[in-house]
Every structure is written in C-alpha cells, then in structure tokens.
Amino acid sequence: MGKLKCGWRGMPVVGMWCVLGLAGLGVMPAAQAVTVSPAGAFSAKGKLELGKGILGLSCETTFSGTVTAGGEIVVTDVRFGGGRCGRITPVGLPWKGRADSPEQLVLHDMQVEVRAPLLGGHCAASTVNVIWKADASAAHFERVQLPPDCRLHGTLVTTTRMVIAP
C-alpha cells in the first residue's frame, strides 16, 4: 500500500496535518448512524404530566407505533387516560423520530390539543428531545417544552425492550 500524499499549492503536507485536512474536506469516513431496534410494533406506557400555564394534569399515557427497518420511530397513536386527561388529544400523527445518540431520542412535530377550561388550547408542533434510559428501556421527558406555554414531564417504559446502538 502506498503512502498517503497530500499537499497545498505544490507544497507537501505531512502527518496529522494531512489527515486533518482530509477530514475537513469530508474525505474521512462519516460517523455511524444511531438506530433503534428491534424493528416492528412498539408500545410505551407511563405517567406524563402535561402542564399548561400554571396548571398541570398527571395522565396515564400510551404511545404506540413502529420502529422501521432503518431504525426510525413512527408514533401512530397516543392516548392520555385518567380523569380529565381524556380531553387531551394528539395532533398531526404520525410523529416521526430517531435516535441522536444512545442516550437521546428526538421526536418531530409533536403537538397536542387540550379541550378544558383554564388549561385548554393548542400545544404547538415542536421537536422534542427525550432522554433514553437503556437500563429500563424507558423514554424520559424532562420538562419538555411545547410552545407557547405547555410542558411535558414523566417517563414512558416500552413493553418490548428496545435498544439504541450505532
């Protein structure tokens, strides 16, 4: 195998400077994508607190959907149960997402409509970062913001153990 050669305007560039130059040009291999597995149907259940303004509701929540063969997440059904939580409905399903790292999931265009006095209104579409807890196969919503004044907090545990890996 020949030596790696690179240069600039006829002047040789050697060693680490050559490698760094190639990396800057996008010649070095890209980092591997992070994916979710196994592919197929999933369900995640737990308690989420939905806050709007100064008020909040704690709801038994279920997210259902699929993990694609490419490792992407597609949420096709969301149910909020218990008391007044039935007045919360998901908007814009399916919500699609992916793993950004083994510790973080991202859901796009997540939004809900709340039909209740004082707490009512639209919680607009937002990209939501969720903490993935691999040991519990759980998605943790850590005071996630949905504009203009909504927030989600709580943990959903998947019924099928899910793995996030490069």
How is this structure best described in words?
The protein has 166 residues and is mainly beta. It has two domains: 30 residues, no CATH class; 131 residues, Porin. Helix content is 6%, strand content 60%. The chain contains one helix and 13 strands. The strands form three sheets. The protein has an eight-stranded antiparallel barrel. It has a two-stranded antiparallel sheet with strand order 1-2.
Low-pLDDT sequence parts? 1-30
Radius of gyration, taken over Cα atoms and rounded to an integer in Å = 22 Å
Order of H and E elements = EEHEEEEEEEEEEE
Q: Which architecture name of the largest domain does CATH use?
A: Beta Barrel
CATH topology category name of the largest domain: Porin
Shape: elongated
How many H/I helical runs?
1
- Return the average pLDDT rounded to an integer: 83
Total individual domains: 2
Q: What is the strand tally?
A: 13
How large a portion of the residues is in β-strands, by DSSP E? over 45%
Strands side by side in the biggest sheet? 4-5-6-8-9-10-11-12
Q: What is the straight-line distance between the termini?
A: 30 Å
Quickly name the level 1 CATH class of the largest domain: Mainly Beta
SS-based structural class?
mainly beta
